[in-house]
Write a structure and sequence with these properties.
With 108 residues, the protein is mostly helical. 75% of the residues lie in helices and 0% in strands. The chain contains 3 helices and no strands.
């Protein structure tokens, strides 16, 4: 785990898909175990990912305001506002995944 390349670490820092197991493979017992594992991972890690994306959005929003006012560069500020909006969108997506995975579902 310590010998991962930087781009892999950066990907894992911002995106949470690698934390979860596939539910489609295996029998009923294996799917139930994978679902339980996914719920545990969601409860533990998804709030942290939401916080990361909201911090990303806040930093870029503040940066955009500084660039727009201090440097009078609306074109550059536009890119910072776009990055901020992307951060909010990812935080909402993460919150949706967290809510969806936090509810217990019975497998049939």
């Amino acid at each position: 785990m310590n010998n991962l390349p930087f781009h892999t670490l950066l990907y894992r820092y911002f995106f949470f898909g690698w934390l979860f197991r596939e539910l489609g493979d295996g029998n009923l017992f294996e799917r139930a175990v994978a679902a339980r594992y996914n719920r545990e991972q969601a409860r533990r890690w998804l709030p942290l990912y939401m916080l990361r994306w909201l911090c990303w959005a806040l930093v870029f929003y503040l940066l955009a305001g500084i660039v727009e006012v201090a440097l009078a560069a609306p074109g550059l500020a536009l890119w910072c506002y776009a990055a901020s909006a992307m951060g909010v969108a990812f935080a909402v997506m993460t919150a949706t995944a967290w809510i969806g995975l936090s509810h217990r579902r019975e497998w049939r």
